[in-house]
What does this fold into?
Amino acid sequence: MSFEEEWAGLKADATARMQLNQVPMYDPGASPTGADLIVHDDELGKIGHFAFRLHNDLKADGTHARTTTNAAGTSLTSDGFEMGEALTSAATAWAKQVGTLLDACAHISNHLDYTQASRKKDDEWVVAQVGVSKISEYFDVPDKNAAPSVPRPQGPII
It folds into this structure.
């Protein structure tokens, strides 16, 4: 197989897998109601709770070896071992990675708490604003026995 043939095959495979500036086609049968986004409060709560627990556990357990690792790195460096500097550098990198993960967990937990509260507040507002009694105010429901009304023309009749 020549290079051109192999290259053409690889490009065709990549094109088949690639989607640019689009999303997959919407499948209305994907959910029982046909909705494209379904959110259940209990699912949001579980995910937020797991993120919160992960944050707390990682905050407590992610830095156990920090003090001893730094002490070992400093001691090895002072004894002339190059490994001490590498160990100290690894401890610093680990601390940064734990901090990044802690921030991500906190962000997920806080965002889900906010989403849940915001969604509940929006639902309550919609119920208060657009209740059945409010909807009936927007429609002139004629009496069953009343004669049908014919609208009067507006403006000059020619």
Q: What stands out?
A: The longest helix spans residues 82-129.
